[in-house]
Amino acid sequence: MGKLLIVADLEGKGIATRRGLDIAARHGFDAEVVSFVYAPLKSINVSAEERVKIKQKLIEDKRLEVQGRVDESAKQGQKVKLTVVWEKDLAAWVSRRCTSTRYEMVVKTGRRSDTLAHTSTDWQLLRECPAPVLVIAENKWARTKPVLAALDLRSKVAIKKKLNVEILQRAAALASAMDTSVEIVSAIEVPVLLADLDLVDPATFAADAKRDMQPQIKALAKQFGIPEKRFVVKRGPVEKVIASQAAAKRAQIVVMGTVGRKGVKARLMGNTAERVLRHLRTDVLALKP
């Protein structure tokens, strides 16, 4: 049986806990809810013994708070483990935990930031966490809407073709558990520089790319029993194509691949999943190759 790691919201209405437990119940997965609490106690002018007591009280208060949310959201008979951690670096702890323990996915409410100097916890998890990360949108969750799988159908690289299969497998499993359908989108991004220099005709480039995608579309459609008409190919920047199709279909979850970049390169360039998150107002499940 699989297991989900659900990161309890530090504040707010406990969206991640509620949705994560619902997803776990629908898949028949066990669930572990982890909550983080931390305070710079060394800055307080009290004895070491008093610091220990304060820490224990903060942990216990957090446990009672999150347990109440778990009790409200858990289904009857659902197996849920609650862990309260004294930790400042949430992303680092989650990544370490997912390295030592296998989880089907990490579920966390999205906290988006567009600043260059600050790398948010969401971005860190997308880049570094070894498990798939489901970033939950804070807007209302529509259970009856389709799951959208975003594929790279142009790539002939074996690892990316394998990732396409994994994305569709995840999307199909989510759609089945939620009693909805799967839709597929793939973008054709015309090289802007070549188009600006009139070295390529955008329409011809897109038509040729779409023709080249057909063998992969046919193979995946046959493998997963999905009608080819559900494979939508559009011209444009990847993040805008995915966002527009998700909005048009009112997709409840977008499943896509991500490449982990770190350091300055990550802050300057990001990756496709991160750019998509800035455009979307729905849940995103990011898988690494």
TrEMBL record:
Residues 10-136, 167-288 form the UspA domain. InterPro entries: UspA. Pfam families: Usp. GO terms for cellular component: cytoplasm. Keywords: Cytoplasm. Belongs to the universal stress protein A family. This is Universal stress protein. It comes from Halioglobus maricola.
